[in-house]
Design goal:
By secondary structure, this protein is an all-alpha fold. The protein has 5 helices and no strands. The protein has one domain. It starts with a helix and ends with a helix.
Length: 94
């Protein structure tokens, strides 16, 4: 495999991973909407005090987001994507 082709494949893999990360983050924000709202309500009208006044809400939000955005979730999404691509490829062969 030539250097140019290898570079193109690596670039493609990076683009796919970026897209999967974006999809993962979007899903996490949707799933954690209730915690986002609680944190936003707590933060209204505050400046520096938000750090200590909304600590509980921030922790709940971060815990929820971490549940939906971690390496294991990303690896599962990559695996599913690969399986889908293989299925598309084999469907064309039949």
């Amino acid at each position: 495999m030539g250097i140019v082709q290898e570079a193109r494949e690596n670039h493609f893999k990076k683009k796919v991973e970026e897209a999967l990360r974006s999809k993962m983050k979007t899903k996490a924000l949707k799933e954690c909407d209730q915690y986002t709202s609680k944190y936003a309500q707590c933060a209204v009208g505050r400046t520096l005090s938000v750090v200590w006044q909304c600590r509980k809400q921030a922790k709940e939000l971060n815990d929820c987001l971490h549940h939906y955005t971690n390496d294991a979730i990303l690896e599962e999404m990559k695996r599913e994507y690969t399986l889908q691509q293989e299925a598309k490829g084999s469907a064309g062969v039949l």
